[in-house]
Amino acid sequence: MGGGIRKSFFAEARACLAPMAGYSDAPLRLLCAEYGADFAFTGLVSADGLSRGMKKSAALLDRLEGESPLGVQLFGSNPEAIARAAAVAGGSGASFVDLNFGCPVKKVVTKNGGAAIMRDLALMERIARAAVADAGVPVTAKIRSGWSAGERNYLEAGRLLEECGIAAITLHPRPRSQGFSGPAHWEDIARLRESLAVPVIANGDVASAEDYREIVRVTGCAIVMVGRGAIGNPFIFREIREAAAGGEPRRASGGERLDALERHVKLQVAHFGEPVGIREMRKFHRAYLKSFEGVKKHRGELNGAETLAEVLEIIAGIREELEENGRVAPQEAP
Fold it and tell me: Which DSSP category does 148 fall into?
């Protein structure tokens, strides 16, 4: 299985969109693919829910035409349920299945899932072997540096997963106790890459082409995972591609940022329907507009909008104001 993933989309990949619960849905994945993301992951999918056919879990596998290769990220602590869910995910058309051994969120770890499994490598082995046996597609895994600063067992976990047939491993280089704050220890990623034959994907604090260059320099990894840095900033994948090719990354103009915001909200509505899509979009507005001055009132207007027509009217108003002030070029004709 590992060879299959390396010979396909993995071989030339440079950057992928991270699995982010509540964010990595089909509209964001498609938008990032349009700007150059090589592959992406779903948000966290409950293996128990998917294996039992629960609609909420199954809906997370929905895709939009044009998305890049997709990995379904599963979490849970029951090897049998994960095996069944991996088979469902593989049968749904997913390019690969990803096992989450890194989520630090309390509601996940209290059920012995996510990063809690870093403390039970025997359970990790049973889960990995069960998923590899039944998925029918390559299986990858995401881990953390460990449970705490005093329990940093990522090298042991990585070697174990490789022995189980895992095709690639992503390391978020913080222990669970650190959450998403504080420095990301990129040196951990370098050590893991040097210890394994399978690809290691570098993850942690990549929010620009400069970050991409530096994490590649430090870790030696060929592929970088972008998470929070892609929220409101799908352009980062174009910038990374240009940096990887040795060129000078093109920064998104103000007009392009507004174009992407408009494209994103239309995708949200097309995928989820108008009421849900508009509500789901509210968590993205601040990120798209953070580089603009004098638009605070418009963020409030966008968060209060209830229809697509309202949102598009507000975006048009922002564009007009910025054009008048010379801070954004007029929108190009289609």
Answer: B
